[in-house]
Design goal:
By secondary structure, the chain is of the alpha/beta class. The chain has two domains: 2-135, Rossmann fold (3-Layer(aba) Sandwich); 160-280, Riboflavin kinase-like (Elongation Factor Tu (Ef-tu), domain 3, Beta Barrel). 26% of the residues lie in helices and 30% in strands. It has eight helices and 14 strands. It has helices spanning 26-32, 71-74, 79-89, 112-119, 138-146, 150-157, 173-176, 259-280; strands spanning 2-4, 15-19, 39-45, 66-70, 95-99, 122-126, 130-131, 134-135, 161-168, 182-186, 195-203, 206-216, 224-230, 241-251. Strands 1-4-3-2-5-6 form a six-stranded mixed beta sheet, sandwiched between helices. The protein is elongated. 31% of the residues are buried.
């Protein structure tokens, strides 16, 4: 029932933070700050198809080992059985950290109080975290990203939003007619709303200034695509995989009557992205 992303021995874990932790955003980091040196994350995995940090992607944003627990395996569990499971899974456990809205088990009846009773350890509840008037929640960040406001999402994440994907074959128009792009296929990452963004694209750990399009190619084949153009990098062979950091929203998706109009707009997008990168160096 329990899967680990590391070879760390769970027998030595003395404190755990429990939650979904999608995005590992600033509110999640507030929970992690309460862990000791032998801390770990117990991630309740729901298998979301549009996640901020799908699967083990979450592990890259924490120094603590991550243990995964399938939501379906515990959704109907009693508080007593869950407490017993935690004691058996982490025999050195002394402290549990949860968020203010933490509930578990059948009909979400389990509370931090019942967890304290049946796990037999200290349970610390971290209050809601806010950025100004905005509560920091994974759902809030998802809504903001769907609207394309990647800068606001970064304020809640504590870093630019990042996706990872495989490079696939595109239309071929970029290299012959427009500007060369890498076409990306992502797996289970939530994509920002349709439009054009100032980005950085990572290849083999090195990030290059770029501009990225997400949406239906309304002027050509009307198919959905994720395409990134690297501003100062040329390669003869496309990489197998890239990462994209979203920095700023430039404009929405639109249809052009003529290819030449689309080409002129792409050229303007590239110049705008270059200006952004020059100003932030």
């Amino acid at each position: 029932m329990l899967k680990s992303s590391t070879i760390s021995a769970k027998d030595s874990v003395s404190s755990i933070a429990i939650g979904g932790f999608d995005g590992l955003h600033l509110a999640h980091q507030a929970l992690l700050a309460r862990l000791d040196d032998n801390g770990a994350l117990l991630i309740i995995e729901r298998g979301c198809k549009e996640a901020l940090t799908p699967g083990e992607e979450r592990c890259r944003y924490t120094p603590y080992p991550c243990f995964f627990l399938d939501f379906q395996a515990v959704r109907g569990i009693s508080a007593e059985a869950f407490g017993r499971f935690l004691r058996e899974a982490f025999p050195s456990l002394e402290k549990i950290v949860v968020g203010y809205d933490f509930r578990f088990g059948k009909d979400r009846r389990g509370t931090p109080g019942t967890l304290r009773v049946y796990a037999g350890v200290e349970v610390e509840v971290v209050e809601e975290q806010r950025a100004g008037d905005l509560p920091i929640h994974s759902n809030t960040i998802r809504e903001i990203l769907r609207k394309g406001d990647v800068a606001a999402a970064a304020n809640l994440l504590g870093r630019p939003y990042r996706i990872r994907g495989s490079v696939i074959r595109g239309q071929g128009l970029g290299k012959t007619t427009f500007f060369p792009t890498l076409n990306i296929e992502t797996d289970n990452f939530l994509l920002p709303g349709e439009g054009v963004y100032v980005t950085q694209t990572g290849i083999d750990g090195t990030f290059y200034p770029s501009v990225t399009f997400i949406g239906k190619r309304q002027t050509t084949d009307n198919l959905f695509s994720v395409e990134t153009h690297l501003l100062d990098y040329v390669t003869d062979a496309d990489p197998d995989e890239v990462e994209i950091l979203f920095l700023e929203y430039l404009r929405g998706n639109r249809k052009f009557d003529y290819f030449e109009d689309l080409k002129m707009q792409i050229a303007e997008d590239i110049e705008e992205a270059k200006r952004y990168h020059r100003q932030t160096v």
